[in-house]
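1st attempt posting a full record on here, be nice pls
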Amino acid sequence: MHSDQIVRTFVEYFEDRGHRRITGSTLLPPPGDPVLFTTSGMHPLTPYLEGRPHPLGDRLVNLQRCLRTTDLDEVGDDTHLTVFEMLGTWSLGDYGGRQSLEWGYGLLTEGFGVDPGLLHATVFGGDDRCGPDVSSLELWQEHGVPVEPTVEDNWWSNGPTGPCGPDSEIFLWTGDGPPRSAPTRDDRWVEVWNHVMMRHRRLDDGSLVPLGRGNVDTGLGLERLACLLQGRRSVFECDLFEPWRRTVPGLWPLDERSLRVVCDHLRSAVVVIGDGVRPSNTGRGYVLRRLIRRVLTVLRGEDPSRGLVDLPEEPIRHTLDRFRLQEEVESVRRVLLDEERRFDRLLERGRQVLSRPRFRGPLDEEDLHYLHETHGLPRELVLGLRSG
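the predicted structure (as tokens):
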């Protein structure tokens, strides 16, 4: 099933059940939001989850682009990405978690044709603040889906304070043989869909109070779902990465993990640039700068002559079109190449500084801090130069 068909099937399924499609926002939260980037589908909907009426009603569905830096070091495995698209549904004080899970099970097994025998669920098992999620547990048992109660893994919050509640996660088996064990004990179970029953608000002192109304917030990563429905081993093999996988290996022969990092970070950089961000030393611009420089560090570590000038137009254009961005391909290329030139100048300065007698021996934390604060040389660049 092609990714466009996946999106269409998802949206139409929930439109048939009274949901209105809303337009996804950019990666940039509104002014005053302390978060640098939109990290989940629910982020732009926070005011409505906290009680404000939504102009399109109380059943919503959308596709939202997201960026997460918390998983940056995990990029390169089979499931994690920096920028991705999130399919989501919301009930704003309307139906509850049991109905949401019922529809989720129906869409996966009937709409997408997933074998029910390859599903596993987890639910909140309860703690000293909140009782177990019996409703979700019973729903899964009625469908014959194995279910595992947990505590920390099935409690969702959007930070130390604010809306929160128990969740039920749906996993799909990706192993070669029949399913064994449970998601907490076997990483061949891949999480595909999280249903959050947002019933509480956490206060500054950590206590929980009921929300004025209960909401349901669900999120399902498009790239991860496409990978599983297309029978691929990793998100980098699904159709959304096809132009990158077809063009990049011929430019820069890399081992598989390095290839994934390069494709992910360049694709993410294109989206961030397309949303109007430019490299800088702070905030969003620093995240973009870090993505580009991590790519260059990987490429130059293999061959100092490699450069972004060789990157073809096709994967850039495909990414801009995929994320519905208006930026021109040449504008994106200029940003990438300008940052590459700055990186080259930084490399030269770094080599000169590290050649000083003080830095010829092993470097400790104090040295790394000094090099960053005084000379603007990030830790990973310094360590890369030393290992090279």
